[in-house]
Amino acid sequence: MLVAAAVCPHPPVLVPEMAGEAAPELDALRAACDRAVGFLAGADMLAVVGGGAETRPYGADAYASLKPYGLDWTSPHEPVDGAEALPLSLTIGRWLLERQGLAERARYQAVAFDAEPEDCLSLGRELAGAADRVALLVMGDGSACRSEKAPGYLDERARPHDEGVARALGTADAAALAALDPGLSRDVQAAGRAAWQVLAGAAVDAAGLGGELLADEAPYGVGYFAAVWAGPDRRAA
Fold first, then answer.
1. Reported pTM
2. Phi and psi angles of residue 37, each rounded to the nearest 5 degrees, phi first
3. For 28-76, where are the E strands, in sequence order?
4. How far is residue 45's CA from residue 24's CA, in Å, rounded to a whole number?
5. For the range 124-128, what are the long-range contacts, defined as Cβ-Cβ under 8 Å and sequence gap of 24 or more?
C-alpha cells in the first residue's frame, strides 16, 4: 500500500553544478524537493518513477549519469560492466535520493512518456501492491510552454494545465491526475503526465493520504512542482 509519495521535477539544472552561476535561482525548488524526499524514509519499498522511452523496470546494477549533459557525475561512481544507464528522470531522482542517503535501497521504474492513462494507473496499482508500506518518488516536469522563451514557446493552454496539476498535487487528488488528457499534455509538452498518473493509480487504495504543494515555479517557462502525499502521522512529523 502507498504510504507516502514525493513529486519532484527532473531538469538537469536542478543539480547546482549543472546550473553554474544560475544555481541560486533554483535554491527554493531544490530545498522543496529535499523536504519532499525526506518523507520517503522508513517504507518497506521505495521506488522512483519517471518518464522514459519505454515502460520498464531497471535492474539493481543500473546507474545514473549526467555525463551526456556535460557534468562528470555518475552514481554509482564505477558502474559494473554491462550496467544500463537510467533515463534523465530517474537519474535526477537518484541524485535527489543520494542527498538523503536513500539511493541504494530504491528500485527504478520508467514509464513511457506516451503511455496510455490506464496503463499508467495499472502500473501504479502494481507498485503499490508490491509491499505493505510503499513510498514513491515521482519525477515529472510540467508544461514547457509557459512563456515565449520556453522550450516549446507560448501556449495559452499551458498555464491552466499546470494550475490543474498543481491543485491536484496539493490536495492529493488522484482522480484529477488520472483524468489528465494525454493529448493536451503532449501539446503543452508536460513531460510528467504519465508519471503523475502512475501516482494516481498507486493511491487508489491508499487510506488517509493528504497532499501539500511545496513548490510551483516556472523560472524558464517550464512548470516545476514539488509536493508530498502522506498520511497525517507523517505530515505532522
1. 0.96
2. -65, -30
3. 45-52, 56-58, 64-65, 74-75
4. 33
5. 124/197, 124/198, 124/199, 124/200, 124/201, 124/202, 124/203, 124/204, 125/201, 125/202, 125/204, 125/205, 127/47, 127/49, 127/198, 127/202, 128/1, 128/2, 128/201, 128/202, 128/203, 128/204, 128/205, 128/206
- Provide φ and ψ at 6, rounded to 5°: -115, 140
**Number of domain units in the chain:** 1
Q: State the CB neighbour count (10 A cutoff) for residue 27.
A: 11
What CA–CA distance (Å, rounded) separates 205 from 128?
Answer: 8
Give the alpha-carbon dihedral of 18, 106, 125, 40, to 10 degrees: -80
Closest CA to 180 of 88, 118, 90, 93: 118
Range of the domain at 169: 2-236
Q: Closest by alpha carbon to 110, among 55, 66, 158?
A: 55
Please write the tens of the pLDDT for every residue from 216-231.
999 999 999 999 999 8
22: domain CATH number? 3.40.830.10
Q: What is the pLDDT of residues 98-141, one digit of tens each?
A: 999 999 889 999 999 999 999 999 999 999 999 999 999 999 99
